[in-house]
């Protein structure tokens, strides 16, 4: 339960920090600290519109996404708080949030939604392999699929760690891989048709998902048996992603696939082979 | 605390003006004025937005589109007519193609006069709009 509270508060704080970093890098002032709470509260007060052609199931999708993210957050180790998740559920729940995004685009019956869903699906098939292999290599190295406590840092896991980090960038739709919700091209991708409370839940799921992915990264690869150190490292990972987001331009869809096929997937396969050879 | 006033999201629509107002509205996002410190964000989708900023007179081609976009915005919405053209028709008034000023097509809450209005005037207009949004 503490993990869930930490995730919720940290997500609101870190997304504000992300916007602030972006603003300060452009010599702007940036939003005040309560901005994310204000955004959410405002969206909950608004009307929930849905176009007549869209599928009524559309309104449930954000809830499923939020529940999946909250389930991961609830059962994460996060230092010594004691998790009870295993790695297969972890891969499944993370994949579920991505697929919900795809379904949201398809069911909302909007051209921007279709294009966003298509792009997310293409990106999904690129990043899911290094993402899952990164988790798998840790399981191979330590010989367990249970994720009850953080795993210590090891040099053997560095290739998998790099591949996992880049895959997480693509999963969280951070630049240079913010192709599915590129605002200048396709408005807001799959979220274009969502308004009011359902948009608020969707955004909350996205923000919490960003924190959870960073936390999983820390617990898998840089584990420390202490809550505060773990949360501090998670913040650092999130801020490093924000900085990358600020300084990098957006990849095209084909160059993104090229990066993953030529660099990230071979790197993660190399990481798995290394782990396997090390444990022989 | 009325949090809705703290996060107005703007959708910008040019209905046939000369692009001068658009540039002044975009100037609100620049380091000098930076409306994000008031919580404003420019959104690409009318479904996310609270404030519709219309620049330019409505012409016969955009008349239906303005109505459609107004209907696509969720309730508790504010419309700002920006610039002389949006308010009266400006130099396009009584032209063969003009369908009327903005308030003839959709209800307008705030008028920001000027040709084009300065970014300060626009920020003041947004602030006035938020006072109206109870």
Tell me what you see in this structure.
- The complex is a heterodimer of chains A (280) and B (134).
- With 280 residues, chain A is mainly α.
- Chain A has one domain (2-279).
- Chain A has ten helices and two strands.
- Chain A has helices at 2-25, 35-45, 61-74, 87-107, 111-142, 158-171, 183-186, 196-221, 227-247, 253-279; strands spanning 85-86, 146-147.
- In chain A, strands 1-2 form a two-stranded antiparallel sheet.
- In chain A, α1 (2-25) crosses α8 (196-221).
- Chain A is globular, with a radius of gyration of 18 Å.
- With 134 residues, chain B is an alpha/beta fold.
- Chain B has a single domain, classed as Rossmann fold, CATH 3.40.50.12280.
- Chain B contains five helices and seven strands.
- In chain B, the strands form two sheets. Chain B has a five-stranded parallel β-sheet with strand order 2-1-3-5-7. A two-stranded antiparallel sheet of chain B has the order 4-6.
- In chain B, α1 links the parallel β1 (9-14) and β2 (41-42).
- Chain B is globular, with a radius of gyration of 14 Å.
- Chain A binds chain B through residues 19, 23, 26-32, 34-35, 37-39, 41-42, 45-49, 112, 183, 187-188, 191-196, 199, and chain B through 3-4, 6-7, 30-31, 34, 36-37, 39, 43-45, 47-48, 50, 72-76.
């Amino acid at each position: 339960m503490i993990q869930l509270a930490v995730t919720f508060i940290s997500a609101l704080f870190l997304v504000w920090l992300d916007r602030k970093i972006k603003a300060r890098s452009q010599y702007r002032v940036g939003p005040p600290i309560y901005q994310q709470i204000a955004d959410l509260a405002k969206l909950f007060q608004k009307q929930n519109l849905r176009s007549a052609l869209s599928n009524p199931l559309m309104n449930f999708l954000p809830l499923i996404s939020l529940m999946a993210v909250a389930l991961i957050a609830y059962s994460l180790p996060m230092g010594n708080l004691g998790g009870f998740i295993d790695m297969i559920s972890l891969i499944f729940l993370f994949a579920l949030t991505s697929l919900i995004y795809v379904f949201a685009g398809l069911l909302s019956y909007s051209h921007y939604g279709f294009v966003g869903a298509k792009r997310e699906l293409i990106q999904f098939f690129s990043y899911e392999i290094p993402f899952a292999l990164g988790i798998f290599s840790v399981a191979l190295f330590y010989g367990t699929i249970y994720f009850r406590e953080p795993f210590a840092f090891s040099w053997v896991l560095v290739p998998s760690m790099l591949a996992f980090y880049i895959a997480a960038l693509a999963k969280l739709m951070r630049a240079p891989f913010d192709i599915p919700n590129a605002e200048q091209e396709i408005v807001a991708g799959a979220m274009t048709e969502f308004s009011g409370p359902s948009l608020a839940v969707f955004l909350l799921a996205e923000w919490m998902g960003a924190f959870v992915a960073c936390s999983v990264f820390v617990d898998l690869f840089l584990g420390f048996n202490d809550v505060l150190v773990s949360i501090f490292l998670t913040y650092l990972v999130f801020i490093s992603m924000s900085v990358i987001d600020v300084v990098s331009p957006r990849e095209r869809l084909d160059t993104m696939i090229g990066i993953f096929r030529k660099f990230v997937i071979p790197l993660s396969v190399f990481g798995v082979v290394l782990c396997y050879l090390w444990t022989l | 605390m009325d949090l809705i006033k703290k996060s107005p999201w703007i959708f910008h629509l040019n209905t046939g003006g000369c692009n001068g107002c658009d540039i002044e509205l975009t100037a609100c996002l620049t380091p000098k004025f930076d409306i994000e410190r008031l919580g404003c964000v420019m959104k690409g989708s009318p479904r996310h937005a609270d404030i519709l900023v219309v620049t330019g007179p409505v012409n016969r081609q955009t008349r239906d589109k303005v109505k459609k976009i107004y209907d696509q915005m969720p309730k508790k919405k504010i419309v700002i007519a920006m610039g002389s053209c949006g308010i009266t028709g400006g130099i396009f008034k009584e032209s063969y193609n003009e369908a009327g000023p903005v308030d003839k097509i959709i209800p307008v809450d705030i008028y920001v006069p000027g040709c084009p209005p300065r970014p300060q005037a626009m920020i003041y207009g947004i602030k006035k709009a938020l006072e109206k949004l109870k």
